[in-house]
């Protein structure tokens, strides 16, 4: 069955506000420009890959870690050195944090014939796994740098080929990894299992290691850029921890056993929504308030409105309040596509569904949709993709210069590996202007049949159009939706199963998909669907579907 021409639907899961992440210290990650920035205490950190900013950003959840190296960004006077062991110049070049704080470590003559340049610190370490990482930028012709995790655990690294040589150690004793690249500096990490005791951690130039002579050698005054040194326990470099006169610990990201919306760049506030409702305040007719419990904005329908909780007094002919709209933060999750969450240029949300999902659907106004899914908070990435929401394909120069752009109003992701503890990061962005999301649906996709030609798409408007006795037309523009109808073929053995799906979703707004081709966005809609199965043939059945597009739905029990 052709996946693009398969009739299916996505049954949405309900989302609620989850307990936000806690972290007792700041954290450093990369923003959308590739610059290392500080994330405040108790705020989930979403990071970009500075080596490739087109990759989807993701929520970075980490355990606690301590950087034992003091003055991680200052190597000139605050790290130890030996006589004739080269020079270090602070504030020499641009660093990953956007500041002119990268250090130049340059070689000088050491004895009669060799040159070297390095800086070191001494530590007392416990036995176990340790990792040293530092940002390095190549300047000199010689590509070799030297990193020493501890005395005797030394690596010489070729910045051009990204090969490394473990000096006087068995193969596999030390591992070396090239990580992110920012501001022209690449972060290099070496890891190894160390015995307990004193350890000398060293960074510097590596044309001569004492065990291995490499060419070309450094000339006096030549060197490379170094910045952001970090020594921590474990065999993996974690997010950068800046230090000064003492070691610094970055607290763990603590996530409660809770599910729903973990993080959003949008907040509920007085400016975007309305002031919080106060039970002891008297409201005039027309006053607006918001309720954190329902994520809704209400308008007072009467004067002298005192002590009437909005959500408990918003129905019936004697209603004291009128529900106006969801808050801007929650409009994208209110179970409709008639309202939209909006932000300037970038909108990011992090979700923990609490159930296994295999599909994500969004109705958006954006240039890019970027989605990253982890199998668990702080786990492995199982999906990462950037979707360009533009379908223009000019066939000649006239169309290229004069035809309007053709933005795609939705995106669809299916076939995700299902994990019960999955962690989903969605980022929508525009080069400029407002980015919007009318609906973001996470759920399970149900395959219903093979869509046949002849699907009908019917735009529907809720606008008022009236004429007076003189022929004057009055138009009051309102929201719009789309109805969808057509047929599909399915195997007779699947008919009863498909009928059960249709019964379950009769009164449940869901995403209905007649084609998953990005350019066939008109063949996808959010609405209430009904199915009719005709057993016309021995092996196959014909399935008729009719979807009533909805812009808002409130489900009440009679």
Would you kindly provide a written description of the structure presented here, covering whatever features stand out?
The chain has about 550 residues and is mostly beta strands. Helices cover about 5% and strands about 45% of the residues. The chain contains 2 helices and 37 strands. Strands 1-30-34-37-36-35 form a 6-stranded antiparallel beta barrel. It is elongated. The model is unreliable at about 210-215 (pLDDT under 50).
Topology diagram in text:
Blueprint (H helix, E strand, L loop, with lengths): L5 E7 L14 E4 L5 E4 L6 E2 L10 E2 L5 E3 L19 E7 L8 E5 L1 E3 L3 E3 L1 E8 L2 E10 L6 E7 L2 E6 L5 E4 L6 E9 L2 E10 L2 E9 L17 E11 L14 E3 L9 E5 L23 E4 L4 E5 L20 E6 L14 E12 L6 E7 L2 E7 L6 E8 L8 H6 L7 E4 L9 E29 L4 E6 L2 E4 L5 E4 L3 E12 H13 L5 E4 L10 E11 L5 E10 L9
Antiparallel strand pairs: 1-30, 1-35, 2-3, 4-5, 6-20, 7-8, 8-19, 9-10, 11-18, 12-17, 12-19, 13-14, 13-18, 14-15, 16-17, 21-25, 22-23, 23-24, 25-30, 26-29, 26-30, 27-28, 27-30, 30-34, 31-34, 32-33, 34-37, 35-36, 36-37
- Unreliable stretches: 208-213
Helicity, as a percent range: under 10%
Please state the average pLDDT score: 89
CA gyration radius, whole angstroms: 30 Å
Widest sheet: strand ordering: 1-30-34-37-36-35
Record field, number of beta strands = 37
- Can you count the helices? 2
What is this structure, in a nutshell?
This protein is mostly beta strands and 558 residues long. The protein is built from two helices and 37 strands.
